[in-house]
Every structure is written in structure tokens, then in C-alpha cells.
Design goal:
Blueprint: E1 4-7, E2 11-17, E3 31-37, H1 39-49, E4 54-61, H2 64-75, E5 79-85, E6 90-96, E7 102-107, H3 116-120, H4 123-128, E8 131-134, H5 140-152, E9 156-159, H6 170-174, E10 178-179, H7 183-192, H8 208-218, E11 223-227, E12 233-236, E13 249-252, H9 265-279, H10 285-299, H11 312-319, H12 324-329
Parallel strand pairs: 1-4, 1-8, 2-6, 4-5, 8-9, 9-10, 10-11
Antiparallel strand pairs: 2-3, 6-7, 11-12, 12-13
Helix pairs in contact: 1-9, 9-10
Length: 337
């Protein structure tokens, strides 16, 4: 059985690389590639390559894109549970500039057909997993069902609230144990929940006390990890559950890497975090975050999304860790769900 279940989207990515991101009305010359993506699939590939037994729940079309997803899942030993749809498999149009920054437009296709009933059929695999990871490129009813089943089974529910404009239900947050927004998603969530709009560019520069207070407003009962790109990761816990950490809030710096493409970095972080949490449940939380941060950094050194996800051995070799297992064991402390 899986120890990580990822529920979400698969897309065929169409990627254009150019010197700068195109402005409105502008036509640029660039290069084109195509490959697998979708936040759910990227995260499932990351979890599997980071060492977790992984199940991926999604909806696929009966077309070339759907067949590609099935073949790729098999290649990475992922248990794929796909709802068949008469809609085309999801697609994404991605522009990447010379600095690795990106702009993305999603065509949901079959992803929009993922149903509550199909997710409910995965009750047993969700109940047997250690961690369930979801995002918001799939219907909110289906994602809410996944989180409810996770909550009922007393498993760890990780919500990556992306895309930022999709989270419209308080229930999603109430059912979440660990929330993983980037700066843009974080400020969108704050605004939606009654806070004054904050410029996303200001988040990384905030002092820890102010940022911690905002995290506590957003998810009083759970942990919030705000990924800050080149500024690393900010971690905020409720005082009642530090998950083995010594402090309720802290930062972990970004790793120095040669960035080529940041397209799947957030997905790499989430998949690796889920894998680490699942495989060493009693380790201090900061160890899991540090591993996910390193994993995500390495993913930016290759072009593409799912195809850029590194394998565990590559991460260990780069950062001089004898093994991820030994690294976490050395920091082990028991923490509650």
C-alpha cells in the first residue's frame, strides 16, 4: 500500500523559452518543448523519487496525453488510479524567461471531471497512507472529499493552495494539517479571509513575529510553510504542536544552485515534504523541511516539471548526506499529528 497519496491534476505541458516573459500584445521568438506536468502529477513524481510508495488519484482523457500519464506513472512505480473522462487530458501553456521565471495558463480538460464519488472510492488507500497531499487544480468538491477522508482516518493532510485564486472554502483549511503556500498564494489567502491586501514582494522581508502572526490567523490549528523562492522557507507552528521543533517559527535559507527553470519547484518541495513526513514520522519537522528545500532547489537545475524531479540518491550525493534516513534519525523527536 502507498504511504503517500497525491490527489490532483495531470497536464501535458507546452513550454516556450524566451529571453523575457511576453507583455500584453507582444510577440517574441523562442524555443518550444512539450512534456508531462500538472501540479498533482509533478508532486506524485517528486514523492516517488524522494523515496515514498506513492498513489496518484486523478482524471485523464482517453487520448495520447492520458496514455502518456499511465506510462510515466508505471515507469516511476506509482499506483495510478485514474477516472476516465470523455474530455481531453489537461494541458498547460508555460512561458519561461532567461532567469527561469515562468507564467502559466492551465486548460483543465479532464482534470475538471474528477468526482467526489471517484475520490470516495479511494477511501481505503487514503486510510492506509501516512500523508495525503492535495492541490487546487481539481474540483473543490473532490478535494474537500479527499481532505475529509484524510481527517476521518487521522492521517496528515497537506494542502498546497495553488492556484491562488481557487481556494474559496473555509472547510479546506479546517481539514488541513499543513498548509504550503508561496508568497502569492499566501497573500491571496489572507485577503480572502478578511486581511488587508499585502504585496507579495513584501512577505520575505517581514520580521518573523509579524509573519508568524499572519500564519496563525490563517491556520490557527496547523502548520504553515510559506515558500519564498530565493529567500528560502518560513515555518510557523501553533504553540500547542511544534512537531518536534524547538521554536514555533523559524526560517530555512535557500540552497545555492544553478537555476535553469523554476516551473516545478513548488511541486518538488511539496512532494519531497510528503515523502519525508511519511517515511520518518517521528523526526523533527525542520529536518523534513530542510530535505524538501534541498530537493526543490535541485529540481530547478533541469528544464521541465515532472521530468526535472531528482531521485533521492542525487540529493544525497549533492548535499553530502550519507542517507536521508540517517539524517532524519539523527534529529528524531516524537511529535503529535
Amino acid at each position: 500500500m502507498a504511504n503517500v497519496v497525491v490527489i490532483g491534476s495531470f497536464n501535458v505541458d507546452h513550454v516556450w523559452r524566451c529571453t523575457a516573459l511576453p507583455a500584453a500584445g507582444e510577440t517574441l521568438s523562442g524555443s518550444y518543448t512539450s512534456g508531462p506536468g500538472g501540479k498533482g502529477f509533478n508532486q506524485a513524481i517528486a514523492a516517488a523519487r524522494a523515496g515514498a510508495q506513492t498513489t496518484f488519484v486523478c482524471a485523464l482523457g482517453d487520448d495520447v496525453g492520458g496514455q502518456q500519464a499511465r506510462e510515466l506513472a508505471t515507469a516511476d512505480a506509482i499506483d495510478l488510479r485514474d477516472q476516465r473522462s470523455d474530455r481531453p487530458t489537461g494541458t498547460a501553456g508555460i512561458y519561461v524567461d532567461a532567469e527561469g521565471r515562468n507564467s502559466i495558463v492551465i486548460g483543465p480538460g479532464a482534470n475538471a471531471a474528477l468526482s467526489v464519488a471517484f475520490v470516495a472510492q479511494q477511501r481505503d488507500v487514503i486510510a492506509s497512507a501516512n500523508v495525503v497531499l492535495v492541490q487546487l487544480e481539481s474540483p473543490l468538491d473532490a478535494i474537500t472529499q479527499a481532505l475529509q477522508l484524510t481527517h476521518d482516518a487521522k492521517r496528515i493532510a497537506v494542502l498546497n493552495p495553488a492556484p491562488a485564486n481557487a481556494i474559496t472554502r473555509t472547510a479546506l483549511l479546517l481539514l488541513t494539517d499543513i498548509l504550503t503556500p508561496n508568497e502569492t498564494e499566501f497573500v491571496a489567502l489572507l485577503a480572502r479571509h478578511g486581511n488587508e491586501r499585502i504585496d507579495a514582494d513584501r512577505i520575505a522581508a517581514m520580521d518573523d513575529a509579524q509573519l508568524h502572526a499572519l500564519c496563525r490567523q490563517l491556520l490557527p490549528h496547523g502548520s504553515v510553510l510559506v515558500t519564498l523562492g530565493a529567500s528560502g522557507v518560513f515555518v510557523s507552528h501553533p504553540q500547542s504542536n511544534l512537531r518536534g521543533d524547538a521554536a514555533a517559527c523559524y526560517r530555512i535559507a535557500a540552497e545555492a544552485v544553478d537555476v535553469i527553470d523554476t516551473t516545478g519547484a513548488g511541486d518538488a518541495f511539496n512532494g519531497a515534504l510528503a515523502a519525508s513526513l511519511a517515511n520518518r514520522a517521528n523526526a523533527v519537522f525542520s529536518g523534513h523541511v530542510r530535505f524538501a528545500n534541498r530537493y526543490a532547489a535541485m529540481s530547478t537545475e533541469k528544464p521541465g516539471a515532472a521530468s526535472a524531479m531528482p531521485h533521492l540518491a542525487e540529493v544525497d550525493k549533492r548535499f553530502g548526506i550519507l542517507s536521508h534516513e540517517d539524517f532524519l534519525r539523527s534529529q528524531e523527536r516524537t511529535w503529535a499529528r
